[in-house]
TrEMBL record:
Gene giving rise to this polypeptide: EHHADH
Cellular component aspect of the GO annotation: peroxisome
Subunit annotation: Monomer.
Name of the protein in its database record: Peroxisomal bifunctional enzyme
CDD domains linked: crotonase-like
Protein species of origin: Corvus moneduloides
One GO term of the biological process aspect: fatty acid beta-oxidation
Length: 717
């Protein structure tokens, strides 16, 4: 094994053309050199390879040197080739390793075929080699989920031959020296049969049903199953042809572009910018060594769980002992469930240790925390009272965060002596599961506060998105017109199940009515009562279906007046098997109620087709997105898209609402909004936003250029 035969794969990310050429040249040289007896392939700087540069897939010049012939070249080498896997071996990187005759991995290395997550499949023969090496069930699991598996699991699966704690390269060279002269035929995966299963056909059929159900319209997982099926049914070369065909389909499907856009959007939002030029590059976070959560209701208990999981000691506070005990039980249950999912279990989380998690009703215990997250009822007076108290009790540097869904951050901050340290941290339910953390800065919020909240998001393994302060911030503000349209559609003749079906077929995890039943109709009702839109404070003589000269639907209020709060009461837009039940069934009572309602208000019921349902709901949400961008509440469309994908169940393969608008075509979105707005002139949410009109007027530039067409920098930025 001479020095010249060691081929170094260069960068962790393959600069494809350069790397592949170097690999090919090196292999050919090694093969031709009689002094070389074996070959070892490794990465530089402790990383094998994270695969192809994703940006290359959408570049018109992507067809450079293809990977498959090089993987074949490795496999057909007459000299043993050993992969030394450190760091990661992902995508094309793992496919290179699969071409090798032996694989040695460092114990901390991770391996995976994540192509499915960017809308593709392993297109360099990975779908054909992996099942031959580790069997169909394990290969299918890796290929259809894209998960990264640790080296220990890879060893159990037979994906690697050896794992080492120390020098991987030395171990790989040792192995290479040991196997010189041994037959290579049995090590060439393309020559191996796929291990048989007694029930292969049934297994593949079930796998397909399962991935289709989970994929919600995303093509890649389904085509991954088809590619693996080809490996079980066809000789290697034919399987490879099928893999290439399916890869081509995915590459041109549009979904791959959407998913790759989402990959980069999620990373782009880390580079936040805020008023006065402060940004991620200049602001430094404060350490959070201890945190507190106030209110252990639906949100607070999930937030506590998240903090404990991130190893941040927490003080959990409630208003009285009764609520405290209820909250403690709920938190403990969540933590026990989380511990069961983790290696090392409860010991790792250590939540029975009062130094890590303390329950109290005593505000004075918050005197030494670095950060407080308030999650009490959505009531401005209550929140102000709490923030006033906090500013007296907490140490001077402590960050004061509110989990409000919509209230004004500046007003909350005004109750404190440190408005620069007040910030919105808007979690999504269930808070220990949902990845989004909307971070809202107020007029006085300091760059350090924003940086600390972003750092917190990272520590909690969430995606933090920094946005400006307005009613509902970004996510809920865009949601209001969407839900409003859904309810208007019921007034006009549709049914909850019809509207939900259209949006679920589009790819949403859950339609607006099922979502409203899950979250509880009473939440919105309380907020509308506070705003004087319904209830006792509504001025006498207000028309039933109008507020402030605009169309209003009292339907959700009427349901609440009947005690129909959704799942919790067993009835809402649907009926459930019991209070707290989860199976939604269309409710004949509601259908009668809707007909009577239309009769009472003289509404002529009409058939509403799927296109209108989809367009009115989605385009009104997108229209609000343009308003948000124009006002400078968010610094780019990627922010809105990341919020929708991670907080609202928007289908990732459609890239988020603003990306979706760009694929539909802005002129079409504008034309449809104009049409619906003319039909419903009393609905401001359908009136096309001026920024959308402007973008269409300048011939709909690509999404990444949109912000440069805003004539002014908003004072919010
Ligand atoms: C018919 C011909 C067929 C040819 C078929 C060829 C088939 C292929 O060859 C298929 C492929 O490999 S597809 C690519 C598969 N690899 C992946 O999906 C890995 C994606 N990356 C990761 O998981 C994490 O970034 C990773 C685990 C690597 C690192 O995570 P970290 O949290 O440490 O870092 P990040 O913040 O995520 O990333 C750091 C910066 O790198 C950028 N980046 C990461 N992976 C990339 C990738 N694969 N391509 C391009 N850029 C990538 C990332 O955006 C970030 O950039 P900045 O935000 O600018 O810092
Ligand atoms: N439920 C949801 O899906 C979401 C709610 N939010 C927001 O999170 C906040 C909390 O909402 P939920 O958890 O749903 O409410 P919840 O009603 O389930 O819980 C609120 C908790 O706060 C406690 N509390 C009230 N006054 C208190 C005081 N003075 N001191 C200590 N604790 C007190 C209550 O005892 C109760 O346990 C609200 O601002 C809400 O708008 C934000 C995102 C999603």
């Amino acid at each position: 094994l001479s020095k010249s035969s060691q081929i170094v794969s260069g960068l962790a990310l393959i600069t494809f053309k350069l790397f592949l050429q170097a690999l090919e040249d090196g292999l050919k040289k090694a093969d031709a050199d009689p002094s070389v007896k074996a070959v070892m392939i490794c990465g530089e700087n402790g990383k094998f390879s994270a695969g192809a540069d994703i940006r290359g897939f959408s570049s018109p010049k992507r067809h450079g040197v293809a990977l498959s012939p090089i993987v074949s070249l490795i496999e057909s080498s007459e000299k043993p080739v050993v992969a030394a896997i450190e760091g990661v071996a992902l995508g094309g990187g793992l496919e290179v390793a699969l071409g090798c005759h032996y694989r040695v991995a460092h114990a901390k290395a991770r391996m995976g075929l994540p192509e499915v997550t960017i809308g593709l499949l392993p297109g360099a023969e990975g779908t054909q080699r992996l099942p031959r090496l580790i069997g169909v069930p394990a290969a299918l699991d890796m290929i259809t989920t894209g998960k990264h598996i640790p080296a220990t699991e890879a060893l159990k699966l037979g994906l690697v031959d050896e794992i080492v704690e120390e020098n991987t390269i030395e171990a790989a060279i040792r192995l290479a020296n040991k196997v010189i002269g041994q037959p290579l035929e049995p090590r060439r995966l393309s020559l191996k049969p796929v291990p048989k299963l007694p029930n292969m056909e049934a297994f593949l059929r079930e796998a397909l049903v399962k991935v289709k159900r989970q994929a919600r319209g995303c093509l890649a997982p389904e085509l991954c199953v088809q590619a693996v099926r080809a490996a079980t049914e066809r000789p290697f070369a034919e399987g490879v042809r099928r893999e290439r065909e399916l890869f081509g389909l995915l590459l041109s499907s549009g979904q791959a572009q959407a998913l790759q856009y989402a990959f980069f959007a999620e990373r782009a939002v880390r580079r936040w910018a805020a008023p006065g030029g402060a940004s991620w590059s200049s602001a430094a976070p404060q350490p959070v060594r201890k945190a507190a959560v106030i209110g252990l209701g639906t949100m607070g208990r999930g937030i506590v769980t998240s903090l404990v999981k991130a190893n941040i000691p927490v003080v959990a506070l409630e208003q009285d002992l009764e609520y405290l005990n209820k909250g403690r039980k709920a938190v403990m249950l969540l933590l026990e469930r989380e511990a069961m999912k983790m290696e090392g279990g409860a010991q790792t989380l250590d939540f029975h240790n009062p130094a890590r998690l303390q329950f109290t009703v005593d505000f004075d215990l918050l005197c030494d925390v670095d950060l407080v997250i308030e999650a009490v009822f959505e009531n401005m007076a209550l929140k102000k009272e709490i923030f006033h108290k906090l500013s007296k009790i907490c140490k001077p540097g402590a960050l004061l965060c509110t989990n409000t869904s919509a209230l004004n951050i500046d007003e909350i901050a005004s109750a404190t002596n440190r408005p620069q340290q007040v910030i919105g941290t808007h979690f999504f339910s269930p808070a220990h599961v949902m990845r989004l953390l909307e971070i809202i800065y107020g007029r006085h919020t300091s760059p350090t506060a924003i940086a600390t909240a972003m750092q917190l998001a990272k520590a909690l393994k969430k995606v933090g998105v920094v946005v400006g302060n307005c009613f509902g911030f970004v996510g809920n503000r865009m949601m209001f017109p969407y839900v409003q349209q859904a309810v208007f559609l019921l007034e006009e003749g549709s049914r909850p199940e019809a509207v939900d079906q259209v949006l679920e077929d589009f790819g949403f995890k859950i339609g607006p009515f099922r979502m409203s039943d899950l979250a509880g109709l009473d939440v919105g009702w309380r907020s509308r009562k506070e705003q004087g839109l319904t209830g006792p404070s509504l001025a006498a003589g207000t028309p039933a279906r109008q507020r402030h000269g605009q169309r209003y639907s009292p339907l959700p209020d009427l349901l609440c007046e009947q005690g129909r709060f959704g799942q919790k009461t067993g009835k809402g837009w649907y009926q459930y098997e019991r209070a707290g039940g989860r199976t939604a069934t269309p409710d004949p009572w509601l259908h009668d109620f809707l007909s009577q309602y239309r009769d009472t208000h003289g509404i002529q019921s009409r058939f509403i087709d799927q296109e209108e349902i989809l367009e009115r709901c989605l385009f009104s949400l997108i229209n609000e997105g343009f308003a948000i961008l124009a006002e400078g509440i968010a610094s780019g469309p990627e922010h809105l898209d990341v919020i929708y994908i991670n907080g609202y169940g928007w289908p990732k393969h459609r890239g988020g609402p603003m990306f979706y608008a760009s694929t539909v075509g802005l002129p079409r979105v504008l034309a449809k909004l104009q049409k619906y707005s003319e039909a419903h002139p009393d609905v401001p949410g359908l009136r096309p936003n001026a920024f959308l009109k402007k973008l269409v007027a300048v011939r709909s530039p690509p999404l990444k250029e949109w912000m440069s067409y805003l004539s002014h920098q908003s004072p919010k930025l």
